[in-house]
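Listing S7. Sequence submitted for prediction.
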Amino acid sequence: MTLAYDVAGTGPGLLLLHSTVCDRRMWDPQWDALQAAGFRVVRCDFRGFGDSPVASAPYNEADDVVELLDVLGLDTVAIVGASHGGRVAQEIAARWPERVTRLVLVCSGSSEFVPGPALGEFWAKEEALLEAGEIDAAVDANIATFLGPEASAAAREHVRVMQRRAFDVQLAAEDEQLPIDVDFSLSSITAPTFVISGAKDLPEFGDVARRLSGGLLSDARAVELAWAGHLPTLERPDELNALLTEFLTD
């Protein structure tokens, strides 16, 4: 199997796709709660994150994830995707609509994502730090940018470990392959969708949430969390667990 993963619990399948600030461990605060809600829960690391190696040949992330579902014998799943994981979740739900029962997008990216000044400035800063070999400073920049003010010291350390792991894996690769984009239409998505955004997130992600819930997805409900940054599942996990469980079991 290409991707490292965990699977636990019994019941309908539920797939968790991580932000690229993190890896599959970002779902630690949700792991037990979603099993207790009656799901067989799966989480995986995208290539170059956590325990998944970087790619040595061209690949597509949605194809990787669907291959994992096939290996696990999961014909249908609900999907919760955070940030970039939300973008991959949209692709899966659009290309294989019959396989996705419900879709939750948490501070999600999208195939039509246009970075604005805030994100562009961050990316430039991160790249300069990495080129200078200041890896810890690049990790700190990610924590400061993507975790909201409600995040605990433990949550910040949790992200520190995951982001440092991603940098170590990716920077050690001699020839890292970038994922291949596949065209898809959001109009193909049939799963009921819940769009969650954070008022204290970078403005680009709020724009994505408004476009998704404002017409790009035909069957979407939305909530903006006044206290949340980019990673609300880590910032107030109990509150997010309640929101996720309510939507997924309704």
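Caption to Listing S7: primary sequence and predicted structure tokens for the chain studied. Residues 56 and 174 are 9 Å apart (CA to CA). Residues 153-172 form the longest helix (20 residues).
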